[in-house]
């Protein structure tokens, strides 16, 4: 079973040379720490920066340079700043190659819910609806089950949707799964996790074809 | 040169009344019009509809207007950092419309650019699209979203001049340029008000035509919401 850093590490292998990548808040943010340093990748933050760098050194933080999580950041050589309409032109216009975001629920048809629990939690969707409605390449990073132990990979989402039929791949603490027209296709197992474990933790239709390899990290 | 300079925030906010609709620049607490917000608190205008990506935190930004119960309706994309906001929303005191962030930016830009509405894929198939026109283009579904209609737009820039030309800094730019010219009156507060002619015309982000009033903010706290650093090795 992987921890959050393990999930991020596995997703980092999906990041290819020349990609512009948008990282959501939470586990997706950690992906930046594991991207190979022999490839060129630029991170976009939807509040208006392309070419995000690491956190600033203590004492060098700038209130005018933050990421979408409102954290102080730095920029790398070649970075640019822009307004929100232009930022979402990059996203809606499909100029961003890969979007990695978290989810509360994903359904076997690729529906995703991650912005609202009616009566309990209403924080808002931020840029998530624009991202999932537009991106060709969306990877969801999340734990396989919620805190109560219930599966987050469902037949249909029970929470209000963020987008319909948009998720292509899911990386959890237990598995790498592809969303296909037939359902969740199991691609890889996390170290020490059996196919049976994954079946038990997946409510939606899980497709298992012969040998399921263990993840390479 | 058409002069847009006003003496101070008091003059800049003349004409502000109860029950008006305002747009605010800023993402989180970065690039928010701090001086205009402080003046709105002082004026204590009520029944406001506020369009802003976020709602501030409990004791700063639009949170200050929420504390005094000046806001009737909030149109935002993300409101997760404000307990008083959540309390007023769940108790029904505050009407809240949550919309996608890119849609918020584009509804402002559409108002600025003279488009009554536009189609976006964001929110299709979700409760955001309920009651709205949808249409298929090239095999994909889109939602019709309308331009904002606001009385005042309050924005913050880094540098400006009396002609109303503006330059923004870093990610404090965010929604600010999109709000310029999107409301009936755009009020810009700047950190530095420089003599006309000093700004290089090649470097201006927003031309003065989109700004009606400009003033140098008396004070900018520029609070950091999440201070994240790495140690000097």
Could you explain the architecture of this structure?
The complex is a heterodimer of chains A (217) and B (233). With 217 residues, chain A is an alpha/beta fold. Chain A has one domain: Glutaconate Coenzyme A-transferase (3-Layer(aba) Sandwich). Chain A is built from 5 helices and 15 strands. In chain A, the strands form 3 sheets. In chain A, strands 4-3-2-1-5-10-12-13-14-15 form a 10-stranded mixed sheet. A 3-stranded mixed sheet of chain A has the order 7-6-11, with no helix packed on it. The longest helix of chain A has 9 residues, at 4-12. Chain B has a single domain (9-115, 148-216), classed as Glutaconate Coenzyme A-transferase, CATH 3.40.1080. Chain B has helices at residues 9-12, 34-43, 63-67, 83-90, 101-113, 176-179; strands spanning 21-24, 48-51, 71-76, 95-98, 117-120, 134-137, 140-146, 150-161, 166-167, 183-194, 213-216. In chain B, a hairpin with a 2-residue loop joins β6 and β7. At the A-B interface, α3 and α4 of A face α5 and α6 of B.
């Amino acid at each position: 079973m992987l921890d959050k850093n393990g999930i991020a590490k596995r997703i980092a292998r999906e990041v290819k040379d020349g990609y512009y990548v948008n990282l959501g808040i939470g586990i997706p943010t950690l992906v930046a720490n594991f991207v190979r340093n022999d490839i060129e990748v630029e991170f976009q933050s939807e509040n208006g920066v392309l070419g995000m760098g690491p956190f600033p050194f203590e004492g060098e933080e700038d209130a005018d340079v933050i990421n979408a999580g409102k954290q102080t950041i730095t920029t790398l050589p070649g970075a640019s700043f822009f307004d929100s309409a232009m930022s979402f032109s990059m996203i809606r216009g499909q100029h961003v190659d890969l979007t990695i975001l978290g989810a509360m629920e994903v359904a076997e048809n690729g529906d995703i819910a991650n912005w609202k629990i009616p009566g309990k939690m209403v924080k808002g969707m931020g840029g998530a609806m624009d991202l999932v409605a537009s991106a060709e390449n969306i990877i969801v990073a999340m734990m396989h089950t919620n805190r109560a132990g219930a599966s987050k990979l469902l037949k249909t989402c029970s929470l209000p949707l963020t987008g319909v039929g948009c998720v292509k791949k899911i990386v959890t603490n237990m598995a790498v799964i592809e969303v296909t027209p037939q359902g969740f296709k199991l691609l890889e197992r996390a170290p020490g996790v059996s196919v049976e474990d994954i079946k038990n933790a997946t409510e939606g239709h899980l497709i298992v074809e012969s040998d399921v390899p263990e993840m390479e990290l | 040169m058409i002069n847009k300079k006003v003496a101070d925030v008091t003059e800049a906010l003349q004409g502000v009344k109860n029950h008006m609709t305002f747009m605010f620049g800023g993402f989180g607490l970065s690039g928010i019009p701090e001086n205009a917000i402080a003046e709105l608190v002082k004026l204590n205008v009520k029944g406001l509809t506020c369009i802003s990506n976020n709602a501030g935190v409990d004791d700063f930004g639009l949170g200050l207007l929420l504390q005094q119960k000046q806001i009737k309706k909030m149109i935002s994309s993300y409101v997760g950092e404000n307990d008083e906001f959540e309390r007023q929303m769940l108790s029904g005191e505050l009407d809240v419309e949550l919309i996608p962030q890119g849609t918020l930016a584009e509804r402002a830009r559409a108002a600025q650019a003279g488009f009554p509405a536009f189609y976006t894929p964001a929110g299709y198939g979700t409760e955001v699209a309920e009651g709205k026109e949808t249409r298929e283009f090239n095999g994909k579904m889109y939602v019709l979203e309308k331009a904002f209609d606001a009385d005042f737009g309050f924005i913050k820039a880094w540098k400006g001049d009396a002609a109303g030309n503006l330059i923004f800094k870093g990610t404090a730019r965010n929604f600010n340029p999109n709000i310029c010219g999107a409301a009936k009156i755009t009020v810009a507060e700047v950190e530095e008000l420089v003599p006309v002619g000093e700004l290089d015309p090649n470097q201006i982000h927003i031309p003065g035509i989109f700004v009606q009033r400009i003033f140098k903010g008396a004070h900018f706290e520029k609070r950091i919401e999440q201070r994240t650093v790495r140690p000097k090795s």
